[in-house]
Design brief:
Calcium-transporting ATPase, cytoplasmic domain N; binds adenosine-5'-diphosphate; Rossmann fold; elongated; six-stranded antiparallel β-sheet; alpha/beta; binds magnesium ion; Cd(2+)-exporting ATPase
């Protein structure tokens, strides 16, 4: 049976907006040795602003419109920002055949023409030659009829408490902090350096994130544990693969909240170190 103090620990945590799905997870949290974060929506706000539009042969407004329409059914933070920058109501009857390609972008038929919007990887897959982007930010390339139409640059901001969150984990003795992202190398490395993370891996597809977590799991000592923290967009498989999966409750998808062992209700990464402290305190009472 589960000792009563576990419920005390879980109750205390829930008052802090930390939902722990069972007493055994407190025990795993207390041993966290490697903490792996997803970037978008976890360490960054996941709220992108369009900072530049570089059309090739079409008007700027048309490029943005094609991207926003192609993205109209997606809940990805990038899609939300493109729709917001577009600003108009979207007539969904103009859009059909939508395919969401996780970690890459979307394909759709817009106004009767095939449109693809996404990153370098997507363009590579489609055999579309893209122009390099000279701005720092996440690039959304757009191809129409299989021909390059230009790109839109968007940028995200790190969460206010992200740097403190990483420092607090170090202070608790967490040996290694890692960030995984599907975003470009320059973007991922800039964020990781800014936050003081030990390691960063960029340009990962969701399946690559699972592979990375598997190899990091091999680096965990026999007494330690690996925690993965994500917003749950595309990362439910990683959440369940980690020794303990932690999801952002506000931004996170239902699938992520379902797959997670711990949910941070207010989306603050700094709550992770609070959760570890609560877990250690609770266990010291139980023992
Ligand atoms: P992260 O790993 O940072 O959480 P994702 O795995 O969700 O990010 O996405 C990785 C990358 O794939 C994004 O940086 C973007 O380049 C591209 N991408 C994913 N979804 C979309 C989309 N709906 N539209 C455009 N690009 C996308
Ligand atoms: Mg993500």
């Amino acid at each position: 049976s589960v000792p009563l103090s576990f419920f005390g620990g879980i109750g205390g945590a829930s008052r802090d907006g930390i939902l722990v799905k069972g007493g055994n997870y407190l025990e795993v949290l207390a041993r966290a040795e490697i903490v792996v974060f997803d970037k978008t929506g976890t360490l960054t706000k996941g709220v992108f602003n369009v900072t530049a539009i570089h059309p090739d042969d079409i008007p700027e407004a048309r490029l943005l419109e094609l991207a926003a329409l192609a993205e109209c059914y997606s809940d990805h933070p990038i899609s939300r920002s493109l729709k917001e920058a577009y600003g108009k109501d979207i007539d969904a009857s103009r859009v059909s055949g939508v395919e969401e390609l996780s970690g890459r972008g979307v394909k759709a038929v817009v106004d009767g023409r095939p449109v693809c919007a996404g990153n370098d990887k997507l363009m590579e897959e489609l055999g579309v030659k893209w122009h390099p982007c000279h701005r720092v930010g996440t690039t959304v390339h757009v191809a129409v009829d299989g021909i390059y139409a230009g790109h839109i640059v968007i940028s995200d901001e790190v969460k206010e408490d992200a740097k403190a969150a990483v420092a607090a984990l170090k202070a608790l003795g967490v040996r290694k902090t890692v960030m995984l992202t599907g975003d470009a190398k320059a973007v991922g490395e800039a964020v990781a350096a800014d936050l003081g993370l030990d390691e960063v891996h960029t340009q990962l597809l969701p399946a690559d994130k699972v592979d990375r977590v598997e190899s990091l799991l091999k680096q965990v000592s026999s007494k330690g544990a690996l925690a993965f923290v994500g917003d749950g967009i595309n990362d439910a498989p990683v959440l369940s693969r980690a020794d303990i999966g932690i999801a952002m409750g506000g931004l996170g998808s239902d699938a992520a909240i379902e797959a997670a062992d711990v949910v941070l209700m207010d989306d603050k990464p700094s709550k992770l170190s609070d959760a570890i402290s609560i877990a250690r305190r609770t266990l010291s009472i139980v023992r």
